[in-house]
Amino acid sequence: MNRYCPVFLIEVCAAIAAEKFIMSATLPLDVFTKKLSEHLNKYYLVVTADMLSDIAEGYLRVLSESNIDEADELLKSYAYNRVNFRRTGKKRAWGSAISNPSKGLKNLQFDFGLARRNFRAFVFSYKNHATNSRANGWTLESFEHVEFIKEISTFEYSGFDFLS
Fold this sequence. Notes:
Blueprint: H1 7-24, H2 29-41, H3 49-66, H4 71-84, H5 112-127, H6 147-150, H7 159-163
């Protein structure tokens, strides 16, 4: 595609990278962000691994400051929330014939500070059990609308990914 990746997909990939990093405990964050950025770059204009790393590191800092016990579950819930809902809380129209949420953008206007503030707000709502803040068993494997997004759930990561 000759368009930029939608912001919500960038944030979802950063959350997935952060979650995989927490769960692996041995692999560096760059292993995950590199593989995810390569996947996004097949469909959109360049999303760098450094960009995803910066976002994921911001998420990890917020989690550290917030003393979250189930950080991996929170990150899964954040990915669920960003895939299925807009920032306003309105459900994304994945089944619509008119608009496709995964359609590329003409301009990428990503604000790292805004992404971190929005994630901090999500952490607050998650801690307070607000509406739409819990994935309730949802996984990316069960996402049925766009195949290339679902493919992310099948990735396997190893230290060798870092070398290539």
